[in-house]
Design goal:
By secondary structure, the chain is α/β, with parallel strands linked by helices. It is built from eleven helices and 15 strands. Helix content is 36%, strand content 14%. Bound molecules: pyridoxal-5'-phosphate. The site of pyridoxal-5'-phosphate has 13 residues, from helix 3.
Length: 385
C-alpha cells in the first residue's frame, strides 16, 4: 500500500526517553535549566488574559517574534556564553560584534530547526546532485537527503576530528551542489573559526547555498552571522532548543538575506500556511527579552564542561575540546557500548552511537552541577572495568 518513495525514508532515532525509571538525562543535549521567568509569565498571561486568541490563527508572519530574535542577535553577537550582561540585556563581546544590524526580514522561524532544515533542503538543494556534508555530523542531514532524494557526499574528518575544509570545498566545487555542516559540529563538539568558514565560502560556488547549522554556537563557538554582509548565499540555522532552554517548545530559525528567507517561506507556505503556534510566538518573544538570563545559563554550562573535561582527562579518557553543551570522549581499552550501559545502570543516560568510527565514544550532555557530580561518581566506578 505504501508509495514507492517510502523506501527512501530512514527516520531519525532520537536519544531514548525511557519511562521505566527516572534517569538523569544527559543524552539529547537539552539544557538542564528552565526558560527565564518572563517566558513562564508570558505563557500563563496569554492563556488567562486572551483565551479567545487560542481560537484564532497566529500571526502568519511571526512579526513580533522576528523583531525580538533580531534584537537578541544584535545585542549578543550570536554567542551567549561570551555576551556581557547589562541588566536583563547584553552587549556582545568585542570579537562577536556584528558589523551591521540584523533586521526582522532576515529571520525565518519554524517548528524547531529540524523543520527549518527540512525546508532549507527543499528550497536550495537539488535531487540528483551530491550534497557535501562531513562524514560525522548531525544525523538528520542524511534523513532529509533520503526524504528529498538528495544524495550525500560525506567527506572524512581530519584525524583531530575537525572538518577537512579543503576537501569539502573541493568536493562542493566539483559536485556543483551546496554544502551543509554544523559549526560547532556534532557529535564531536569541535568548531571552525569564522575566518576558516570565510575561507571555505570563498572557495565554494557563489551560485549555491552554503548552510551553517549553529545549534551549539552560543556555548562558545564563533558565529558566522557577521559573514552575511559578505556572502548573499550564506544561510545560518539556529535553535531555541539548546541555549534558550526550550527544546519542548519547538522553535528554530534561519538568519539569511531577505531573498533566501523568502524562498524558505515559499516552501513553508506550500505545505502549511501557518507558522509556529501562537503560544510559542509569545514565549519565544519573551525569551529574547532576557538575554542576560540565558547568557548566565550558557556560562554555567561552559564552566561545567571544562571542569568535566578535566575530570575525564585526569582519568585517562580522550576528550575532544568542546565549544558546545556536550563532550565527546572515549576511554582507551573500554568499549563505548559497555561504558554507556554501566553509566545507565547507575541511573544516567548518555548517548552512544553504534556507527563505525565513533563506536567507542560517548556523547555526554553537560547538566547542572548536581547532575555532573552524579555522573562523575558513575564514571569513577566504570573506570577500572
Ligand atoms: C539539536 C540540533 C538541531 C535541532 O534542533 P531543534 O530546533 O530541536 O529541531 C539542529 N541541528 C543540530 C546540529 C542539532 O544538534
Amino acid at each position: 500500500m505504501n508509495s514507492k518513495r517510502m523506501k527512501n525514508l530512514h527516520p531519525y532515532v532520537p536519544g531514548e526517553q525511557p519511562e521505566d525509571r527516572v534517569y538523569v538525562k544527559l543524552n539529547a543535549n537539552e539544557n538542564p535549566y528552565p526558560p527565564c521567568p518572563e517566558v513562564i509569565s508570558s505563557i500563563t498571561g496569554f492563556v488567562t488574559s486572551h483565551p479567545e486568541k487560542l481560537g484564532l490563527y497566529p500571526d502568519p508572519d511571526s512579526r513580533v517574534l522576528h523583531e525580538a530574535i533580531a534584537g537578541m542577535l544584535n545585542r549578543t553577537g550570536g554567542v551567549l556564553a561570551r555576551a556581557v550582561p547589562e541588566g536583563k540585556q547584553c552587549r556582545p563581546a568585542e570579537q562577536d560584534r556584528i558589523p551591521f544590524t540584523v533586521t526582522p526580514d532576515m529571520i525565518y522561524s519554524g517548528n524547531g530547526s529540524d523543520e527549518v532544515l527540512s525546508f532549507v533542503f527543499y528550497a536550495f538543494f537539488d535531487c540528483g546532485t551530491k550534497l557535501v556534508v562531513p562524514e560525522f555530523s548531525y544525523s538528520f542531514y542524511p534523513v532529509y537527503g533520503g526524504f528529498y532524494n538528495i544524495p550525500l557526499d560525506p567527506v572524512k574528518l581530519n584525524s583531530d576530528w575537525t572538518l577537512d575544509t579543503v576537501k569539502m570545498t573541493a568536493h562542493e566545487k566539483r559536485n556543483k551542489s551546496g554544502i551543509i555542516f554544523a559549526n560547532p559540529n556534532a557529535p564531536t563538539g569541535r568548531g571552525l573559526t569564522r575566518s576558516q568558514v570565510r575561507e571555505m565560502i570563498r572557495n565554494t560556488r557563489s551560485d549555491k547555498v552554503f548552510v551553517v547549522d549553529e545549534a551549539y554556537v552560543d556555548f562558545g563557538g564563533e558565529s558566522c552571522i557577521p559573514l552575511l554582509a559578505e556572502f548573499p548565499n550564506l544561510v545560518i540555522v539556529r535553535t531555541f532548543s539548546k541555549s534558550l532552554c526550550s527544546a519542548g517548545m519547538r522553535l528554530g530559525y534561519i538568519v539569511a538575506s531577505p531573498e533566501l528567507v523568502q524562498a524558505v517561506t515559499t516552501v513553508k507556505n506550500s505545505l502549511n500556511h501557518f507558522p509556529i503556534d501562537a503560544v510559542a510566538q509569545v514565549a519565544g518573544t519573551a525569551a529574547c527579552c532576557n538575554d542576560a538570563y540565558y547568557a548566565g545559563c550558557a556560562g554555567k554550562i561552559a564552566y561545567e564542561r571544562e571542569k568535566f573535561s578535566a575530570f575525564l582527562t585526569a582519568r585517562g579518557w580522550n576528550v575532544l575540546p568542546s565549544q558546545t553543551n556536550f563532550v565527546f570522549a572515549e576511554k582507551p581499552g573500554i568499549d563505548g557500548g559497555a561504558a554507556y550501559r554501566k553509566i545507565k545502570e547507575q541511573g544516567i543516560l548518555v548517548r552512544h552511537f553504534a556507527t563505525k568510527g565513533i563506536e567507542n565514544y560517548l556523547r555526554i550532555t553537560i547538566g547542572t552541577p548536581e547532575q555532573m557530580k552524579k555522573l562523575c561518581d558513575a564514571v569513577e566506578k566504570i573506570t577500572d572495568c
